[in-house]
Amino acid sequence: MKIVPKKLDSLFTLKQEGKEIRIKLLSPEAWNKEKNKLRHASYQGFQGKKSDHAFVLNNDDDLDCILCGYEDGIDAYTLSHLPALLKKADLSPDDVFFKLENAKSYSKDELGRLYLSWSLGHYKYQNFKEEGAGPQYKILLEDNDLLTKVKSLSESAYLLRDMINTPANEFGPDEIANTVKAVSDMFSAKYNVTEKAGLEKNFPLVHAVGKASSVGPRVAEIEWGDKSNPKLALVGKGVSFDTGGLNLKPGQHMALMKKDMGGAAHALAIAYIIMSLDLPIHLHLVIPTVENAVAGNAFRPGDVYKSRKGLTVENTNTDAEGRLILADALTFASESEPDLLIDFATLTGSARAALGQVIPPFFATNEAEGDKLEKLSFENFDPLWRMPLYKPYKSLIKSDIADLVNSASPPGDLIYSALFLNSFVGDKVEWMHFDTFAWEASGKPGRPKGGVETGLFSVFKYISKRYAA
User: Fold this and answer.
1) Are 315 and 300 in contact (CB under 8 A)?
2) Low-confidence stretches of the chain (pLDDT beneath 70)
3) What's the pLDDT at 62?
4) Among 88, 186, 289, 338, which lies 20 to 30 A Cα-Cα from 70?
5) Catalytic annotation on 249?
6) Cα separation of 238 and 316, whole Å?
7) Where are the beta strands (DSSP E) in 196-354?
8) In what order do the strands lie in the sheet with 304-306?
9) How far is residue 170's CA from residue 179's CA, in Å, rounded to a whole number?
10) Euclidean distance between CA atoms 369 and 363, whole angstroms
11) Do the strands 19-26 and 63-69 form a parallel or antiparallel pair, or are they unpaired?
12) What is the 3-state secondary structure (H, E, C) of 141-173?
């Protein structure tokens, strides 16, 4: 099995075909100025608040316009509640198209987020149900360059969500690698996979974590782009399922562990956008993928392993396996001295305790670039928060019998794990690390319960500004 990115052409149109229905955005302030002219919208409870909506009919009692409320700026989910409403209204997508009113009054970035929110509102995971995806309503987008970008971002998010939502019995290390290859093939990129004896020799920590599973561990790679361009390396944690190993997780903490490959999904999604938009980047994607299983040959607390870098690691917790597989992958990705190395991982509970489920913390060895990204992320309404690589804490990950331990005590583990990973990054390499949750627990418009992008759009925007401005 493999997951292939879905093409989303059915959600957009460059031409006005069928009956036009306008979409008009109104903030609470704008609504106060217009509510006397649109009293029928007041009767529908419209106040211009986020996710408010009202239907405006013409003289023939046909739907003419949809009022859509928004507050505190336009994000990638502003219009996401509309597709479900249209389905309830029993509108045929073959007969109508939707048009954003006063589109020229919005900035290019705002327009991008609005059209992106339209497509994200149509997302539905459907691999195990016979019901279809539902009506695919088209919105008019006459700017071809913007359309290309919005489709790329949308398709990357759909790919990411499908990967995370697929259960581990259907999506183990082999299927994750197959999906990496499928994306590679779409863009005629160079693909490589390392497994078995080659993995044990060259990625010993990846092998140690994954050897207990009936499906062998592996490292999947993509290389793409002109080698004269700046090199960007992306690494994603690809743990297809995490039992915790011999330090077994309790049931309530194991239930969602199909999502422990969310870092790999984010890294592959970024790679997809870069290649589909043909950015001037020399890309190297590295996905270490394993199942952290329990068996007689499972790695144990107290075991010591020599990493690819040569540093020895005392395994103090088999449930801190993600940082072990990332360590070898980061060493490998560093060896070609990329201009920038970024990794994504569903790594620590302390990240959620610090910032909740929506805002991913990140670390940056270049503080000035980290500050740029943090500022950009809030302007993009897809927030990220930079945390400190506080070097005095390195003493907490020292081992009595090896160079490092992979896990210290939980308080502060967000920082301890980042310091551990930083030990495997090349001295000359600029590095960013994202500790992402990759899950929507309750379900919101455009973010149904399940796998979700966290920080994806802001990281891409940063990369685009840095390398393609």
Assistant:
1) yes
2) 469
3) 87
4) 88
5) yes
6) 21
7) 218-224, 231-236, 238-242, 282-292, 304-306, 312-314, 340-345
8) 304-306, 312-314, 404-405
9) 12
10) 10
11) parallel
12) CCCHHHHHHHHHHHHHHHHHHHHHHCCCCCCCH
- pLDDT of the residue at 40: 84
Whether residue 343 contacts residue 364, with contact meaning beta carbons closer than 8 Å, is answered with: no
**431-435 and 340-345 beta bridge pairing:** parallel
Exposure string over 245-277, b if 16+ CB within 10 A, otherwise e: bbbeeeeeebebbbbbbbbbbbbbbbbbbbbbb
Task: Please name the amino acid found at residue 30.
Answer: A
Q: Which of 24, 113, 323, 447 is catalytic?
A: 323
20 Cα distance to chain centroid: 34
- Which residue is associated with the tokens 């801190």? 320
The single residue of 22, 49, 249, 306 carrying the catalytic annotation is 249
Residue 250 DSSP symbol:
P
> Residue 311, class by beta-carbon neighbours within 10 Å (0-12 exposed, 13-18 middle, 19+ buried)?
middle
Q: Give the pLDDT of residue 469.
A: 65
Pairing of the two strands 139-140 and 12-13: parallel
Closest CA to 429 of 367, 328, 340: 340
Placement of tokens 């302030």 in the chain: 29
Tell me the one-letter amino acid at 390.
Answer: Y
Torsion of CA 237, 241, 243, 244, to 10 degrees: 0
Q: Supply 241's token pair.
A: 């399922």
Which tokens in the block code for residue 214? 């009936």
Phi/psi class of residue 28: alpha, beta or left (left: φ > 0; alpha: ψ in -120 to 50)?
A: alpha
Place of tokens 């009692």: 61
Give the DSSP per-residue string, 66-109. EEEE--SS--TTTTTTHHHHHHHTT--TTTEEEEETTGGGS-HH
Say which DSSP state 389 is in.
-
Q: 330 by DSSP, 3-state: which?
A: helix
Among residues 367, 364, 372, 164, the alpha carbon closest in space to that of 268 is found at 164
Q: How many helices (H) and strands (E) does the chain have?
A: 15, 20
CA 56 to chain centre: 36
Q: What is the pLDDT of residue 249?
A: 97
Asked whether the beta carbons of 69 and 27 are under 8 A apart, the reply is yes
Chain CA centroid to CA 62, Å: 40
What is the pLDDT at residue 200? 98
Of 406, 163, 206, 177, nearest in space to 292 by CA: 206
User: What domains sit in the chain, N to C, each tagged with a CATH number?
Assistant: 9-136 (3.40.220.10), 153-468 (3.40.630.10)
In DSSP terms, which residues pair with 20 in a beta bridge? Answer: 97
Query: How far apart are the C-alpha atoms of 61 and 237, rounded to whole Å?
Result: 54
Q: Which residues pair with 314 in a beta bridge?
A: 304, 405
pLDDT at 430: 98
